[in-house]
Amino acid sequence: MGSTANGAAAERRTAASNGRSPVDKEVDFANYFSTYAFLHHQKEMLSDRVRMDAYYNSVFHNKHHFIGKTVLDVGTGSGILAIWCAQAGAKKVYAVEATKMAVHARELVKSNHLQDVIEVIEGSIEDITLPEKVDVIISEWMGYFLLRESMFDSVICARDRWLKPNGIMYPSHARMWLAPIRSGLADHKMSDYEGSMDDWHGFLKETEAYYGVNMSVLTKPFSKEQKKYYLETSVWNSLHPNQVVGTPAILKEIDCLKVTVEEILKVEANISSLVTKEDTRLCGFGGWFDVHFKGSEENPAESDVELTTAPSQDDGTHWGQQVFLLHPHARVNEGEEIFVNFSMTRAEDNHRLMKVDLGYSIKQSSGKMLPRVDNKFFIE
């Protein structure tokens, strides 16, 4: 079923080259992979019509990429992508799943009479061994704000180990976006933080009055803890397009055939956005992503399908948007320009989570540049 030694060695080399400690696989499984072993979690993703339609259309509108081909599905989950690939004409599909969801995938494949085409393999892509190289790698690897969860690392590993030189990736390209927004969430979060601190001060008084212990020395660390929770942790939200108050800008573009793990460890960008609303509040920034199924230059898709998680007034996605709220907010007006310095890296204690440094400054209509404001956020 695979070479655990080779996979572990590769992981240690990657971690060492990036100055990180090797990931504890048991801890990683408990914190991350185990979630995907539950059918209710799979149902949430399978109920996302935007997600499902994009993958379905990308496969069945580009059958020439699958007919008679060998396919690897990384993180197959329920197995539905593998089933579509087989239905589109693939001669062999290797469906790799790290959790016990592989048992359900195997049953689903059998009930759809595709067990002669699809082989479900339980194990991590870093550890398993395939009997051959593949023509296509398909995977739904995207996390919140694209890179949270770091599953793309495994897809890159699969590509480097098992994709033929002229093979293609589904999806083939990805982009990360950021735009200024207005939202009442900023006021709610500040109110929650202030309420938490009021409760803390009441707790201090009662503890000293009843038990004779003054615990005020812990106020500063408690405040720091609560600020991180309420004010510095990015918020999952489903934004309406009317909440976007400026032009969106691309933070990063990714070619899935070429990108390396080292190139996604850190996302840095200096962007600008032109305010499009009259006299409004700048309450934060919203981040989202899109992916495309374009094939390759040598073997392009007949139908270029896009999956976007941008703010929508109709059907959103289960990814929604990542919202970075500002405290305090600022006021902006149409025609003003917002300059943003953005940096996102992986958290030291959990490589699947992210930390963000976001600085912004506003160039007013008069030409005056307001002082830069720096913020730190966590994507957890």
From TrEMBL:
<dbReference type="InterPro" id="IPR029063">
    <property type="entry name" value="SAM-dependent_MTases_sf"/>
</dbReference>
<dbReference type="GO" id="GO:0006338">
    <property type="term" value="P:chromatin remodeling"/>
</dbReference>
<dbReference type="GO" id="GO:0042054">
    <property type="term" value="F:histone methyltransferase activity"/>
</dbReference>
<comment type="subunit">
    <text>Ring-like homodimer.</text>
</comment>
<dbReference type="InterPro" id="IPR025799">
    <property type="entry name" value="Arg_MeTrfase"/>
</dbReference>
<dbReference type="Pfam" id="PF22528">
    <property type="entry name" value="PRMT_C"/>
</dbReference>
<feature type="domain" description="Protein arginine N-methyltransferase">
    <location>
        <begin position="191"/>
        <end position="363"/>
    </location>
</feature>
<dbReference type="GO" id="GO:0032259">
    <property type="term" value="P:methylation"/>
</dbReference>
<feature type="region of interest" description="Disordered">
    <location>
        <begin position="1"/>
        <end position="21"/>
    </location>
</feature>
<dbReference type="GO" id="GO:0035242">
    <property type="term" value="F:protein-arginine omega-N asymmetric methyltransferase activity"/>
</dbReference>
<dbReference type="GO" id="GO:0005634">
    <property type="term" value="C:nucleus"/>
</dbReference>
<protein>
    <recommendedName>
        <fullName>Protein arginine N-methyltransferase PRMT10</fullName>
        <ecNumber>2.1.1.319</ecNumber>
    </recommendedName>
</protein>
<keyword id="KW-0489">Methyltransferase</keyword>
<dbReference type="InterPro" id="IPR055135">
    <property type="entry name" value="PRMT_dom"/>
</dbReference>
<feature type="compositionally biased region" description="Low complexity">
    <location>
        <begin position="1"/>
        <end position="19"/>
    </location>
</feature>
<dbReference type="Pfam" id="PF06325">
    <property type="entry name" value="PrmA"/>
</dbReference>
<dbReference type="GO" id="GO:0016274">
    <property type="term" value="F:protein-arginine N-methyltransferase activity"/>
</dbReference>
<dbReference type="GO" id="GO:0006355">
    <property type="term" value="P:regulation of DNA-templated transcription"/>
</dbReference>
<keyword id="KW-0808">Transferase</keyword>
<keyword id="KW-0949">S-adenosyl-L-methionine</keyword>
